[in-house]
């Protein structure tokens, strides 16, 4: 799948020349099995928690956009019998490996409460990460809320050679923007408490109008990603989008993370979570 | 039942010490002698995907003694609409819907690659008619890579409308039909909703099955706060530790009813769980959902059971 | 089933918002209109014992809208040999074996004291033959303290050997036999192991039942490290949150099949659990095992559901 | 049941005169429902843990021998889905309410790990406690291992006016004997590391031989209790024995705690856990 499907459907290619072979592997192979890592620290990052872990047994350089299946090593099962399965989280940084966690439900809340010294089970890195931007194109990172997590890792890998447009609920949530170390960062908030009062896609539209050779890298709520894909199509720029789906395993075992592309259903954990905009149906 | 237990043939507490079972060599399944006791549950481990993700390191620490493929159907299937999974109390619901490329592409593209695995292969098949099932068994059975076939009889028979595995006669007819088509061992995977599990198992044995496996997932559902089902098709199958006590009772009932080897599964996470299945009368166990939480969950169990077997006077060589 | 869902009448995800259900008055069960939606599961709350232990304070915070007695049989029963209970993953197994003093002493000694409770009484009965059941229904039904009867049909019929509730025809014959003997509403408590739950429920409705309740416990077992069953009789019935997804699917199936009110139960601990049963089509819910962990588990649910009902335009008075 | 059954069976009465009405209620009524108490402290007592809780909402004077159903308020369910039900524990002291916990399985281990400030759910006091000794009789408390717990409460209630014979595995376990504040304490250990090298029932036999008007109060492993009952029968002294049975509810709801007496099966949580030796079958 991947580019094949899009190619078959006869869409336009990217405006800038792509390197024949990407500089980073889209996927870094994970050690088989679940390993235990130690939590190094847990601190606030806006409305989220930043958890650094000591993953000695894992590969040093996961590709930005790859994710890990996480579960606390103790006290994972809650009093109502959930969470039981591990939960997928993008790494926001490597060396040390770090995750940005939005406590929205039982699993993410438990992880967000991990203390330094406690253990966390992890499997990963998993999935296909971002491809590096083509030579000459400006990498434009578009993030919404907790969706900034994989963009943090991407900006780090690009050594800051990118621009970021980040949207948040409010100024407090926007404090997490500091994790995306881009050359230029523009912010939007839903309540106008910081930066543009409105959607991050407003910022994107303006930036694209201004012109230039761009390549988009986006992660955020599904409607945002669909809007980014639409904007990319209209402006004829390539876009790589990191999606979410419910995941039981993260390594292709359960077929639970069905995601629809032009080529039909695929497993988002294996062939994604980064999807080329042109492969969307 | 449990409340009254009057008149029924209530099983007693008689001890079948798992240690004793482990000291004996595992039984043969037809002409096939599994090299150990741990299978995977069909559809819960895609070894090809896992090899892509984990690389060849997986071959050196393969979690199962026998690898069972996901269920293959005659025609390709896209699977069910999402959401396909929902977590529930110490278990999960799935409504995956058997996505697969169909037998043609499975045999051409997947089977040769599965042959790289360091363990024998068992292929699970499901037909929506006896004709379909016959075609599947004939085609899969003739392949040298295949050590055994598992018949997933959880599907409704398109002719009778009955779910094959719920009815002893339907099950018998299905097994009788395919039995002459292959010399390979046939494992019948029982449906947990049969009114009389033991009768279905006996019918499978009489019709020529070489082993039975159970349990498959239990029909279940869950709703969100607004009353909407958490799964695309409205319901799914329950697996994981939540079902273990029910699965153990079914395995015990079936193991008492037939003389065939029984492959027991349902919620096995640790070696102690596997030992409970041996106590219930199973000769083999399968690890399903637990692999989702830890891809190598089976390995610890595989090693522990093999080690316990080797402590016996008649030491066996298990990898 | 869940894997294939081909050909079957797969229920959809259509929303039955519990809030909408709660805004309507609960339906009548025959001539009996329960004052609220929360029952207890038969055999999981001995109100007389609880009154001894907790005193009259229990009356002021009674956890249920309707009190269901444990199952009463014609002759006294001592119950099963211990151990009678075993904990398992987020649930428990029991093989209590229906200990009770028999209908004679129940009516003489217990019923008058149960009449002190601030809520209507439902008496659960089980007969080992239709004759026994008829005698029980006639004797219990004539008592003024009794608002409704629940027929626990999980017992094997001594004449046919079939478990009554597993077979639609047996269930129909049992209900038909007792229907003329009382004007009191009859609730049939379904057996979770019936091959076709919906057919049994329809048979009960056709034979004159006023409501159905489900689920009873699922046959299950567990073993210790030496392979000895953890329960005296070797197996028991599984209850608690572990069974909730399966119970919800059965309630949904039955609620679709009959027009009678359905009392749903299995693993209800919190109000959110109760709402899931309403979403599945139940009009009433019952709290069982959860009361063991917190004797007033039902009270929080009772209050929450009543409060939500009262937010409706047509406010009802619920205690 | 209780005395009735024994009376019916025509056994001998106690050698000393019983007060017509016991000075303590055998049962103190519990508030309905589960309440939350705060753990005040957790310290070692030999091989066990002593947990004091702040049970403001509970009755001040539970009867010695009564028990409580305990569950930690958070993190109760372990990773394998157990413990789920609460667990029964005798109080070893009232004011403040305290429990002595032997960490033998998932539930007791979780309780033994409770920290000061954490919450514990409790239901109780439950069951029938000890009756006070008849006037003139010497209360002889016989405990084995963790079975000393209800004897601690009994000695406290008797103001120390009793003697105790306590058996333990070894000297370390025997440190918990300090919780039984009896006028005279004799110890036995299985390994002879402290006191008599042997069984506590050896001590009992000697004490009974020495003669006097005794009344026995015993708690410990079932074989020990059976032996105490036998010794009491032989010496013709009354004995109250606190037994154990698996308990799901503790308040008569589940019928799980079946215990056999002369009158047939009874619920140990309701009619026990203290059973008169003469009611044993
Ligand atoms: C590849 C990938 C990377 C992710 N990276 C991050 C990250 O870096 N940081 C972060 O905070 N979160 C991330 N998530 C989301 C995170 O996995 C979920 O928030 C988490 O699984 C929720 O679990 P829970 O037990 O807290 O809540 P649940 O009770 O499981 O869910 C709470 C709510 O979220 C919804 N939900 C749960 N899982 C998903 C999902 N996967 N997709 C869409 N909706 C869902 C549920 O329907 C429910 O409404 C990522 C998800 C994926 C698939
Ligand atoms: C009335 C009463 C008072 C008690 N008082 C105390 C006390 O003060 N201090 C204390 O440490 N313990 C006491 N106990 C025992 C305590 O309740 C058990 O040790 C505890 O329930 C074990 O739970 P678990 O989850 O730790 O282990 P589990 O896994 O439940 O059990 C561990 C082992 O103990 C056995 N077991 C469990 N419960 C019982 C039981 N009730 N009777 C006999 N064997 C059992 C199991 O079969 C298993 O072998 C009391 C028990 C009763 C009935
Ligand atoms: C996601 C998922 C997919 C499954 N797919 C299949 C399948 O294709 N064929 C089959 O026979 N069983 C299938 N099963 C059932 C398992 O093989 C196993 O019988 C069941 O999950 C119980 O074991 P467990 O509790 O260890 O998971 C599937 C189970 C799950 C959870
Ligand atoms: C200890 C125990 C005793 C029970 N006794 C009876 C009974 O006498 N009659 C009956 O119809 N159901 C009996 N049940 C079943 C419950 O009423 C209920 O159907 C079942 O436990 C499922 O609900 P739960 O998961 O909320 O407990 C009993 C269940 C338990 C756990
Ligand atoms: S999450 Fe299991 S296959 Fe993708
Ligand atoms: S513990 Fe439930 S009745 Fe005694």
UniProtKB/TrEMBL annotation, chains A, D:
> What top-level branch of life does the organism fall under?
Bacteria
Q: What is this protein called?
A: Dihydroorotate dehydrogenase electron transfer subunit
Q: Which InterPro entries match?
A: Dihydroorotate_DH_ele_sf, Dihydroorotate_DH_Fe-S-bd, FNR_nucleotide-bd, PyrK_electron_transfer, Riboflavin_synthase-like_b-brl
Question: Region (Disordered): which ranges?
Answer: 1-35
Instruction: Please list the residue ranges annotated as the Dihydroorotate dehydrogenase electron transfer subunit iron-sulphur cluster binding domain.
Output: 244-280
The organism is Thermoleophilum album
Transmembrane feature ranges: none
Automatic annotation (TrEMBL), chains B, C:
- Note describing how the cofactor binds: Binds 1 FMN per subunit.
Keyword set, alphabetical order:
Cytoplasm, Flavoprotein, FMN, Oxidoreductase, Pyrimidine biosynthesis
EC number(s) reported in the record: 1.3.-.-
What pathway does the annotation place this protein in?
Pyrimidine metabolism; UMP biosynthesis via de novo pathway
Q: Which Gene3D superfamilies match?
A: Aldolase class I
Q: Which gene encodes it?
A: pyrD
Q: What does this protein do?
A: Catalyzes the conversion of dihydroorotate to orotate.
Q: Where does FMN bind?
A: 42, 70-71, 152, 189, 215, 240, 266-267, 288-289
Q: Output this protein's name.
A: Dihydroorotate dehydrogenase
A Pfam family that the UniProt record links to this protein: DHO_dh
Enumerate the catalysed reactions.
Answer: (S)-dihydroorotate + A = orotate + AH2
